[in-house]
Design goal:
- The protein contains 27 helices and 26 strands.
- Helices cover 33% and strands 16% of the residues.
- The protein is an alpha/beta fold.
- Strands 5-4-16-15-14-6-7 form a 7-stranded mixed β-sheet, sandwiched between helices. A 6-stranded mixed β-barrel has the order 21-25-22-24-23-26.
- It has 4 domains: 56 residues, 2-Layer Sandwich (Phosphorylase Kinase, domain 1), CATH 3.30.200.210; 273 residues, Rossmann fold (3-Layer(aba) Sandwich), CATH 3.40.50; 191 residues, Dimethylsulfoxide Reductase, domain 2; 125 residues, Barwin-like endoglucanases.
- Bound molecules: ligand MGD (2 copies), iron/sulfur cluster and molybdenum atom (MO).
- One ligand MGD binds next to helix 5, helix 13 and strand 21.
Length: 734
C-alpha cells in the first residue's frame, strides 16, 4: 500500500524576475545576519535572502529578515520635514533649511534661557555607527548638553554596568562559536528562538552535535525552555538569590577554580561571607527553585570543563539588573569560565546596533568606552576633535529614565528624539505623555511619521532607515558588519548622517570641528581614535567589512601590518591571565545582598504582569505593523493566561479582558496557555497604548534600567465584548 500523495505537484517558487542581489546586514536584531536584497529589472526590491558565506547566519534569515525589503515602501514613512508652533496644532509641510534652522535656534534659545543641560537628546541602538559617532561629536563637542542618553538604558544598561563593575570595561567577552565548545549552557531570561532566531539556530546546531546540557531560567515556558534539559521557572525578580545560592553550593563543596581565582580576581572573601547567607534551603523559599535543583545546577555548571552563560532582558530589566549581570560574572569567574572556548558570560544584545552605540555614541561618556570622569580621556578626545577640553562635563549626565523625571519637574525644557519612541517603550506612559506635553520644544527624527512620540513634536525630521543608509553596525559577538545603501531614502527624507552633518554646520559656523561627509571616512577617523583601546578597529575599513561579511573587534592596524587575518569568528576577550580592565588587571568578585523591592502581586492585583516580545514583531511595530507577513500573526494585543486561571475568572479563549494595574488599564484578548503559571500573565509590548500603560518601571540603582517584567495586575472579564472588540481594534493602529 502506498502512503501519502502518489501524484506530487512540485512546489513552484514564483519567479520574481530578480536581476541583481545586493549586500547589507539585517537592521532588526543584534544577531547581525548578512542579507542580500534581490532587485528586479525595474530596480524594485522584491526579495531578501541570507548570505551563505557569512559566518553569522550561513545563509539563514528569520521571519523579520526575510521580509525586510518590504520596509522600503511601507506605509507611514516620513516624506518631508514638518513643523508647527504647538504640538496640538496640525502639521505644516516645511523644508530642510527651515526645519533645521528652527531646531538649532530652539536648542540655543532654551540653553541660553535655562542653562546648557536644559535641552536633552535621546538617541537609540538602531542607527549606524558612523551616525552615532557624528551625533556624539555634535552633542559633546558643539551643542554641549550633558543630558544625552540612548534607549539603550531600557535595554543594555544593566549589562554595560555589570560588565564594568566586574571586568572594568564594557564589552561581551564571548562569541557565537563558544556554543560549539561549551559543556554546559545556562540561559537567564532570554527567549532566543523568538528574539534571536539565528543565534538560537547556531546554538541548536552545536547542541545537537555535542548534546551539552541546556538550563533555562525564566518564569515562563518559552520556546527555549521547551527545548531545555532543565527549566527553572524562577519567581520574577529573584535571579540574584538563585545566583547567590549556586555560589553557596560551589564554595561550600569546593568546586571553585582556585588557581583561576587567585590569578585573575579580587574579592573572594567578601563574596564568600555574603553567599553564606544563601543556603539553598532558605534561598528556595525566595526564588521558587527547590533546593535539590539549585544544587544540581550549581554542580553541573561548576564541574563542566567549559561552561557558558547567556542572558537578555529577564536579567537586565529588573531592579537587580546590574547585580544580576554581576552575579552571572561572579559565577563565571569562580569557575574560571571567561576568555576560553565555550567558557564565557555572553550578554545577548537587543537592537541591531546597541553595541555600536555603546562603543561610539558618547552617550554616557566619550568614544570607544572613554569616560567623562577621566581627565586624560577628555584631553585626548578634545584634542582629536579640536575643541576645548573644558567644554566637556566632568561626569556623565542623566540617564534616559531620569531625563523624563527632569522634564516633569521642569528642569529639562527641550528634547531631540532620534530613532526611539518613548511613548510606546517607556514604563507608565501616562506620566511620559504628561511630560511630553510640557516640553517647550521637541524635535522627532524618525523614519516613520506615525510614531506615537511624534504626536508631541514641534518639528519632525524624516529620516532614512536601514539600507537606505551607509555605514556599519556591531552585533552581539562584537562583529562589525557593513550596510551598503541599497535604496535612496523616500521622497525628501534623508539619511540620519546627512541630518547630523547639516545640523552640525549650524553649530559649527567657524568650521573649527571637522565633520566628514562620507561614512567610509568617518569610519577611518574612528579607527584612529581606537588605536590601543579595547575595541581597536584601526585595522578595518568598509571594503574589508563587506568582503569578509563582518569582522570582530579588536582588529588593529598593528595586527594587519603583521599579516594577521581579520577574525572571522571565535575571537574572545580576556584570554590571557589578569588582562581585565581594572587598574590591576584583575576582575572583581562582588557580593550581592538581595533586597526584595519589586511590585509583587497581592489581593487587589493578584497576577504578575510579565511583558516582552514575539518573533514576528519589532517593538512599537512602526516597521513590522506595516508588513503583512509579520503583522498577520498577531495583529491585536493579547495576553497569555493560564487555563486554570481563565476558568476561575470565567474567561474563554478569545474573550476580551481588562487588565488593571495601579497605573491604568488596557483591553486585551485572552489566550489560555500552559506557558504561564497560574499567577502570571504575559503581555507582548508591541501594541499601541497598551503594555506600558500598565507597567511601573522601578529603576535599577546602578543602570537606571526599568523593571518592565515585574508588575502586578488584576484581570476583569468584560461584559460588553462588542465594545471591547472595538477598543482593541483601535489599538491595532496600523
Ligand atoms: N522578534 C523580535 N526580536 C527582538 C526584538 C523584538 O522586538 N522582536 N527586540 C530586540 C531587543 S531590543 C531585545 S532587548 C531583545 C530581548 O530579547 P529577550 O530578552 O529574549 O526577550 P523578552 O521577551 O523581552 O524577555 C525574555 C524573557 O525574560 C523572561 N523574564 C521575565 N521576568 C524574568 C525574571 O525575573 N527572571 C528571568 N530569568 N527571566 C525573566 C520573560 O518571561 C521572557 O521570556 O530582543 C531583540 N530581538
Ligand atoms: N513593557 C516593556 N517595554 C519595553 C521593553 C519590554 O521588554 N517591555 N523593552 C525595552 C527595550 S529592551 C527596548 S530596546 C525599547 C525599544 O524602544 P524604542 O526605541 O522606543 O522602540 P522602537 O519601536 O524600535 O523605536 C525606534 C524608533 O526609531 C525609528 N527608526 C527605526 N530605524 C530608524 C533609522 O534608521 N533612523 C531613524 N531616525 N529612525 C528610525 C522607528 O520608526 C521607531 O519609531 O523598548 C523598551 N520597552
Ligand atoms: S535573527 Fe535578527 S539579524 Fe538575523 S534575520 Fe532575524 S532579525 Fe535579522
Ligand atoms: Mo532592547
Amino acid at each position: 500500500m502506498l502512503f501519502g500523495r502518489t501524484k506530487k505537484n512540485p512546489i513552484k517558487i514564483a519567479d520574481k524576475g530578480i536581476k541583481e542581489w545586493k549586500y547589507a546586514a539585517c537592521g532588526y536584531c543584534s544577531t547581525g545576519c548578512s542579507i542580500e536584497v534581490g532587485f528586479n529589472a525595474e530596480g524594485k526590491p522584491v526579495s531578501s535572502r541570507g548570505v551563505a558565506d557569512a559566518d553569522v547566519n550561513r545563509g539563514k534569515l528569520c521571519l523579520k529578515g526575510i521580509f525586510e525589503h518590504e520596509l522600503f515602501d511601507s506605509a507611514g514613512r516620513g516624506t518631508v520635514p514638518l513643523m508647527r508652533e504647538h504640538w496640538h496644532q496640525k502639521w505644516q509641510k516645511s523644508d530642510w533649511d527651515t526645519a533645521l534652522d528652527k531646531t538649532h535656534d530652539e536648542i540655543r534659545r532654551i540653553q541660553e534661557k535655562y542653562g546648557r543641560d536644559s535641552f536633552a537628546i535621546i538617541s537609540t541602538g538602531q542607527m549606524l555607527t558612523e551616525e552615532f559617532y557624528t551625533l556624539g561629536k555634535l552633542t559633546r563637542g558643539l551643542i554641549g548638553t550633558n543630558n544625552y542618553d540612548g534607549n539603550t538604558t531600557l535595554c543594555m544598561a544593566s549589562a554595560v554596568s555589570g560588565y564594568k563593575r566586574s571586568f572594568g570595561s564594557d564589552g561581551p567577552p564571548g562569541c557565537y562559536e563558544d556554543f560549539e565548545h561549551t559543556d554546559c549552557l545556562i540561559a537567564w531570561g532570554s527567549n532566543l528562538p523568538e528574539q534571536h532566531p539565528i543565534i538560537y539556530w547556531r546554538m541548536k546546531e552545536a547542541q545537537e552535535k555535542r548534546n551539552f546540557p541546556l538550563i533555562v531560567i525564566d518564569p515562563r515556558v518559552t520556546m527555549l525552555a521547551q527545548n531545555a534539559h532543565m527549566h527553572l521557572a524562577i519567581t520574577p525578580g529573584t535571579d540574584v538569590v538563585l545566583q547567590n545560592a549556586m555560589m553557596y553550593v560551589i564554595l561550600d563543596e569546593g568546586l571553585e577554580d582556585k588557581e583561576y581565582i587567585e590569578a585573575n580576581t579580587n574579592g573572594l572573601e567578601a563574596l564568600r561571607a555574603e553567599v553564606a547567607n544563601y543556603n539553598p534551603v532558605t534561598a528556595q523559599k525566595i526564588c521558587g527553585i527547590d533546593e535539590d535543583t539549585i544544587r544540581n545546577v550549581a554542580r553541573l555548571f561548576a564541574k563542566a570543563p567549559a561552561a557558558m552563560q547567556i542572558w537578555t532582558m529577564g536579567i537586565n530589566q529588573s531592579t537587580h539588573g546590574s547585580d544580576g549581570v554581576v552575579g552571572i560574572n561572579n559565577l563565571a569567574l569562580l569557575t574560571g569560565n571567561i576568555g576560553k572556548p565555550g567558557g564565557t558570560s555572553l550578554s545577548i544584545t537587543g537592537q541591531c546596533n546597541a553595541m555600536g552605540t555603546r562603543e561610539w555614541s558618547s552617550c554616557s561618556g566619550l568614544p570607544n568606552h572613554r569616560v567623562l570622569e577621566s581627565a586624560q580621556d577628555r584631553e585626548d578626545v578634545a584634542k582629536f576633535w579640536n575643541i576645548d577640553p573644558e567644554f566637556f562635563p566632568k561626569k556623565r549626565g542623566m540617564f534616559q529614565t531620569d531625563i523624563y523625571a527632569a522634564i516633569e519637574t521642569g528642569e529639562i525644557k527641550g528634547l531631540w528624539l532620534i530613532a526611539t519612541n518613548p511613548l510606546s517603550s517607556l514604563p507608565n506612559t501616562a506620566r511620559i505623555r504628561k511630560a511630553m506635553e510640557k516640553l517647550e520644544f521637541c524635535v522627532v527624527q524618525d523614519c516613520y511619521q506615525d510614531s506615537e512620540s511624534n504626536q508631541y513634536a514641534h518639528v519632525f525630521l524624516p529620516a532614512g532607515t536601514w539600507a537606505e543608509k551607509d555605514g556599519v553596525m556591531t552585533n552581539t559577538e562584537r562583529r562589525i558588519s557593513r550596510i551598503t545603501p541599497l535604496m535612496k531614502a523616500p521622497a525628501e527624507s534623508k539619511p540620519d548622517l546627512w541630518i547630523f552633518n547639516r545640523m552640525a554646520e549650524r553649530f559649527n559656523k567657524e568650521g573649527k570641528v571637522n565633520f566628514p561627509e562620507k561614512a567610509g571616512d568617518i569610519f577611518l577617523e574612528m579607527g584612529e581614535l581606537s588605536v590601543g583601546r579595547l575595541a581597536d578597529i584601526s585595522g578595518m575599513d568598509h571594503e574589508m567589512l563587506e568582503q569578509k561579511r563582518g569582522v570582530q573587534w579588536p582588529y588593529s592596524a598593528k595586527q594587519k601590518e603583521a599579516g594577521e587575518e581579520p577574525p572571522k569568528g571565535g575571537k574572545r576577550l580576556y584570554t590571557e591571565t589578569a588582562t581585565f580592565r581594572h587598574a590591576d588587571g584583575k576582575a572583581k568578585l562582588i557580593p550581592l545582598p538581595f533586597i526584595d523591592n519589586n511590585e509583587v502581586p497581592d489581593d487587589k492585583f493578584p497576577f504578575w504582569l510579565n511583558t516582552g516580545r514575539l518573533i514576528e514583531h519589532w517593538h512599537g511595530r512602526t516597521k513590522t505593523g506595516k508588513i503583512g507577513n509579520n503583522n498577520k500573526y498577531s495583529p491585536i494585543p493579547f495576553i497569555e493566561i493560564n487555563p486554570d486561571a481563565a476558568v476561575e475568572l470565567g474567561i474563554q479563549r478569545g474573550d476580551y479582558v481588562r487588565l488593571v494595574s495601579r497605573r491604568a488599564d488596557a483591553v486585551v484578548m485572552a489566550t489560555p496557555t500552559q506557558r504561564v503559571a497560574k499567577n502570571m500573565v504575559f503581555l507582548p509590548f508591541h501594541f499601541h497604548d497598551c503594555a506600558n500603560r500598565l507597567t511601573l518601571g522601578l529603576l535599577d540603582p546602578h543602570s537606571r534600567q526599568p523593571a518592565y517584567k515585574q508588575n502586578a495586575v488584576r484581570i476583569e472579564r468584560i461584559k460588553d465584548q462588542k465594545a471591547a472588540a472595538k477598543l482593541s481594534m483601535e489599538m491595532r493602529k496600523f
